[in-house]
Design a protein that fits this description.
- This protein has one helix and eight strands, in the order E-E-E-E-E-E-H-E-E.
- It is mainly beta and 162 residues long.
């Protein structure tokens, strides 16, 4: 089991290596680069166009948002494109709503509280005097679409290099 810095505070960074012992924590340097990292093997990725390869299709974004490779920006981590907020944009966002009923889950499965959500992503910023910040959020909304039942946000921990 991985050893996180502080799960209670939503700090999911792995504790560092001690004495160069990579096996001290199974999650460190033990990953399989052959395995697809963004598609869980259980049920697949429920997001449409998760890597922005079809531009901003299926996403709700701020007006200046773009998908591609930012001018003078880093290359894409995976694929050929990524989301970025656009030039001279103080805040940018991309969001997508997934309807679990339309995805094939029954009301009984949802109400039983037995479903598990796995989410993640990759955030990266260019080192600058005013670096970008990033976060990934998941919110659970009731059938009316108005009441948030729960949510979790994970912030990028090192915006100048990640």
């Amino acid at each position: 089991m991985p050893h996180f810095v502080d799960v209670g505070a939503n700090d999911f960074q792995l504790l560092p290596l001690v004495g160069g012992q990579t096996a001290a924590d199974m999650a460190l340097e033990q990953g399989n680069p052959i395995a697809e990292y963004d598609i869980p093997p259980q049920n697949g990725n429920l997001l449409s166009n998760p890597g922005f390869e079809q531009g901003l299709t299926d996403w709700t974004t701020d007006p200046a948002a773009l998908a591609g490779v930012a001018p003078n920006g880093p290359t894409a981590y995976d694929g050929a494109k990524y989301f970025y907020a656009g030039p001279n944009t103080a805040t940018g966002f991309a969001q997508q709503q997934v309807n679990l009923l339309r995805a094939g889950y029954s009301p009984a499965q949802i109400d039983a509280g037995a479903l598990t959500v796995s989410f993640g992503g990759y955030t990266r910023s260019i080192a600058a005097s005013n670096p970008d910040t990033g976060s990934i959020s998941v919110s659970f909304i009731d059938a009316s679409g108005t009441n948030v039942l729960g949510s979790l946000t994970v912030n990028s921990t090192n915006p100048t290099t990640q």
